[in-house]
Amino acid sequence: SNASVTFSYLAETDYPVFTLGGSTADAARRLAASGCACAPVLDGERYLGMVHLSRLLEGRKGWPTVKEKLGEELLETVRSYRPGEQLFDNLISVAAAKCSVVPLADEDGRYEGVVSRKRILGFLAERI
């Protein structure tokens, strides 16, 4: 039935993802090249938060310098969802998310991919 669709059913694993301490210049360029406004940042396998391209470029004329590192102060705290959670129970919070994707992480905080609003809307549209 419609009511039992989990996030894992719509998960995407090929979305850009960055590592804490990685290059901000690399992150900014990859986000711009992939047309993504934001992406998850991990510490090892653990999901930490989202980084927004606008934040990486804030207050500058060009790209971040190669020396700059992706630190926690650049991240936005965005809740993650468990892959097994029900999509329909969480539609309102997903719709309210600032980013066009929400991150998935298991109970230990390990990153499991993202679910995009676009994909959710497409899925809903097929069923209406």
Main sheet makeup: 3 strands, mixed
Low-confidence stretches: none
Radius of gyration: 15 Å
Structural class given helices, strands, pairing? Answer: alpha+beta
Which word captures the global form? Answer: globular
Distance between the termini: 13 Å
Percent in strands: 15-25%
Strand order of the largest sheet: 1-2-3
Q: Please write the string of helix (H) and strand (E) elements.
A: EHEEHHEEH
Give helix % range.
Answer: 25-40%
Total number of helices: 4
The averaged pLDDT comes out at 92
Counted beta strands: 5
Search tags:
alpha+beta; two-stranded antiparallel sheet; globular
Write up this protein.
- By secondary structure, the chain is α+β, with helices and mostly antiparallel strands.
- The protein is built from four helices and five strands; from the N terminus they run E-H-E-E-H-H-E-E-H.
- A three-stranded mixed sheet has the order 1-2-3. Strands 4-5 form a two-stranded antiparallel sheet.
- The protein is globular and about 50 Å long.
Secondary-structure blueprint:
Elements: E1 18-19, H1 24-34, E2 38-43, E3 46-52, H2 53-57, H3 91-96, E4 101-105, E5 111-116, H4 117-127
Parallel strand pairs: 1-2
Antiparallel strand pairs: 2-3, 4-5
